[in-house]
Amino acid sequence: MEWTALVATLVGAVIGVGSTLVTERVSWRRNASEQDREALRTTAAQFLEALTEARDTISDASRSEHLPVDERAQLARAAFLTYGVHAKQYQLELLATPEVAECTRDAAHQLVLYRDAVTAGHLRDAPECAQARRMFREARQKLMGAMRASLVRP
After folding, report:
1. Is 82 within the bounds of a domain?
2. Closest-CA residue to 107 (of 147, 138, 151, 128)
């Protein structure tokens, strides 16, 4: 056997193995990216769910005119712990882009301000509650827009 045939065979094998490795690497990167996106999607949905549940609880407390102020305040305060808002916020901030993380903090902060208006004794129709609810809704909408943008495939 000639040495040129041996070299050609060796070069062909190197090219074949190299192209297989490159293909595997591209496939691995695509799968890893999809797994990261799915983890972000799941964590974002869990945070939005916690925000919504806490907001509903705070809103219910603000409508409970028959309850004493301290009981309404206790219900509103418990909303964050009951639904794990801060824990889910931190989880999302670890996975999210800087823009989504900033919007996450803002939405949680606006919900805290709504809770604080209720714990201060204001009922749902009070200007303080209405303003806090509006600011929370705006922050949540901005967050959802940032989440959608970050979940778009490149």
Report:
1. yes
2. 138
> pLDDT of 1-26, one tens digit each?
587 777 667 667 667 766 776 677 76
Whether residue 120 is contained in a domain is answered as: yes
Rounded Cα–Cα distance for residues 54 and 111 (Å): 8
Percent of the chain with pLDDT over 70: 86
Report the CATH number that the domain containing residue 135 is assigned in CATH. Answer: 1.20.120
pLDDT of residue 33: 74
Q: Which of left, alpha, beta for 123 (phi over 0: left; psi -120 to 50: alpha)? A: beta
pLDDT band of 138, cuts 50, 70, 90 = very high
The domain total for the chain is 1
pLDDT of residue 140 exceeding 90, the answer is: yes
Mean pLDDT on 76-92: 95
